[in-house]
Amino acid sequence: MTSRPARASARSVDEYRAVIDGLLTPLADRPVESVPVPEALGRLLAADTRAPVDLPVFRNSAMDGYAVRADSVVVAPVTLPVRGVVAAGDPGLEPLARGTAVKVMTGAPLPPGADCVIPVEDTDGDDAAVTVRRGRTAGEFVREPGTDVRAGDRLVAAGTLLAPRHIAALAAVGLAQVDVRVTVRAAVLSTGDELVPAGQPLRPGQIYNSNGIALAAALRADGVTVVSVAHSSDDPAVFGELLSAATRSADLVLTTGGVSQGDFEVVKEVLGARGGTFGSVAMQPGGPQGLTVLDGVPVLSFPGNPVSTMVSYEVFARPVLRALAGLPPVPEYDTVLTEPIRSPAGRRQFLRGRRTPAGVESVSGPGSHLVAGMAAADLLIDVPAEATELPAGAPVRVREL
Fold first, then answer.
1. Is 348 exposed, middle or buried, given 0-12, 13-18 or 19+ CB atoms closer than 10 A?
2. What whole-number distance in Å separates Cα of residue 53 and Cα of residue 235?
3. pLDDT-derived band of residue 7, with 50, 70 and 90 as boundaries?
4. β-pairing, 379-383 with 252-256?
5. pLDDT confidence band for 375 (50 / 70 / 90)
6. Contact 341, 387 (CB under 8 A)
7. Res 2: pLDDT
8. Coil, helix or strand at residue 367
9. Which entry of 8, 119, 268, 297 is 20 to 30 Å from 256 by CA?
């Protein structure tokens, strides 16, 4: 491994990510809204939710069988008269007399006096009389009130990302509404005269607009509500109007394109005049970056090449947005290269990679335009800025895509 210093003018990846984290982390203090429980899946619970009732609510049978007094079946086999049939949802019965039985279904309320249930497979009988072949002790196959949760107990803790199992518990105690955090709202704004929507024919010099669609998909996957996906020409007036609309409706704006050193860099032109900072981060792809706070809304400006856009999102935005949504961190782990690689001096490279039984191999090349190659990858290979060559078998850090 050989080493060369990073260019002094370029920020490190970690430095720039810390700045973005500092801007986005306050979005954790979002308003609370009440939503119907069936619509709360994937939302972040705002406060501890307590059970308003016991679960089970009443004593009921855990089996299809016969409710009896345990002292009536001490000596088995024994035949008992059946005094009724109770299904789930039936009202309670008269107290059960010693030496009698009531036929019950799973979930059915038990009559007062019954203290155990004989499973149907341990009996021979019908709705008139039953022969109990095996006795049971008090409490067997009886669900007592509150053995799952007591009224007033915490059912789901604040900060929980509500999964189907949580929805089941909330519904089981009869809650119709639940308080959740409002999701982070993001707007996506791609730029470039060369971009056209999918489905239209391409004229010479044009390409399809993939960045807006890709960023919106990434945001949704990370628990963000996408409020708009727009495309601007390279006209500063058009971009400015779309940007103003985005900041009015969103907590966060992501832009793509228009941040490099060439002509027609509309994002840099408009936002630079409004306090934005633009410069280079010591990484490949994704070196040109911009950051602005406009009317209190963070605006992250990524480069326009498709792979640069998506790697920038993965490295700078995805970790903090997932944390804000209550989602688990993106998995990262150490593995080994199955082939040698080269990397530019002084730039932290994020190669697209694919796991193999022996480690990780690179996919396609390092070019920032190779979007189809990124589709074939399932990992980013994190190559340190000081490394210019790594042999096969060298340890590397990877993160899942």
1. buried
2. 61
3. very low
4. unpaired
5. confident
6. no
7. 37
8. coil
9. 8
* Digit-coded pLDDT (tens) for 144-194: 999 999 999 999 999 999 999 999 999 999 999 999 999 999 999 999 998
- DSSP character for 27? G
Amino acid at 303: P
What backbone torsions phi and psi does residue 212 show, to the nearest 5 degrees? -60, -45
What confidence tens digit (pLDDT) does each residue in 301-328 have? 999 999 999 999 999 999 999 999 999 9
* Distance separating alpha carbons of residues 397 and 278, to the nearest angstrom: 28
CA–CA dist 320, 280 (Å, integer): 21
Nearest to 335 by CA among 388, 392, 284: 392
Beta-carbon contacts of residue 221 (< 8 Å; ≥ 6 apart): none
DSSP conformation letters of 83-146: EEEE-TTPPP-SPPPTT-EEEE-TTPBPPTT--EEEEGGGEEE-SSEEEESS---TTTTEE-TT
Residues ≥6 apart with Cβ < 8 Å to 273? none
Run of H or E residues at 152: none
Alpha-helical segments (H) within 297-398? 306-312, 318-325, 371-375
First to last CA, the chain: 27
Count CB-CB contacts under 10 A for residue 64. Answer: 16
Q: Rounded to two decimals, what is the model's pTM?
A: 0.85
> Mean of the pLDDT values across residues 62-90?
95
- Token duo for residue 211: 């960045």
Which has the higher per-residue pLDDT, 195 or 178? 178
| Residue 64 backbone phi and psi in degrees, to 5 | -75, 130
The total of other beta-carbon atoms located within 10 Å of residue 170's CB is 22
Strand duo 252-256 + 297-302: pairing: parallel
Residue 34, both tokens: 């009440």
- CA gap 363, 12 in Å, rounded: 25
The answer to whether 303 and 369 are in contact (CB under 8 A) is no
Looking at the predicted structure, is the pLDDT value of residue 116 above 60?
Answer: yes
As a whole number, mean pLDDT of residues 337-355 equals 94
